Amino acid sequence: MSWFISQANAQEPASVPAEGGHAPTEAAGSTVAHGGGEHGGTFPPFDPSTFPSQLFWLAIVFIALYVLMAKKVIPQIGSIFEARAAKIAGDLAEAEKAKGETDAAIASYEASLAAARNKANAIAHDTRTKVAHEIDGRRHAAEGQLAAKLSETEKHIADVKNIALDHVSTIATETTEAVVEALLGKVGREEAAVAVAAVSAGKH
Length: 204
Description:
mainly alpha
C-alpha cells in the first residue's frame, strides 16, 4: 500500500515556482496540507492512473491465493472430510455389525430357551407317564394282594364256620342226648344225632 501511495505522489505534477521566490513555500505548504488531509485530493487506490498496477498485483495475489487454496487448503479440507466420512462409515458398519451380532445372540437365546422348554415339557411328560404306570402297577399289585387276602380270609371264615357248625352239631347232639336221657332214659348217640339233624333240616 505504501508503494501505491509513493507511486501516486510520484505521478502528481510538480508545483511551478512563482515570482518572488515564494513558490516553494506554497508547494511545501500544499504538500503538508495534502499530507494532513486538509485539502481535497484523489485517494491513491481510486486513482485511475494506478489501476494497471493495482490490477496486476490483484491478479498476482488472486493467483497466489488460488494456488495456495488449490494445493494446500482444499486438499487438507477434502482429506478431513474424507477421513470424517470414512470414520462415520466405519462407525455405521460397526454399529450394523454389532446389531447383527445382537440379533443373532437374541435369536440363539430364544432358540435355546425354546429347546430347553420343550425338553422340560418332554421330561415332565415322561415323568408323569412313568409315575402313572408305576402307580397303576402298584395299585394292581395291591388289589391283587388284597383280593388274595380277601379270598384267603373268606376261606378261613368258611372253614371256621364249618368247624363251628360241626361243634354246634356235636354240642346239640350231646345236649339232646342228655336231655332225652334225663327225661326218657338212655338214648343212643345215633338216635340223638338223627333228631338234631331233623330239627336242623326243619329250620332250614
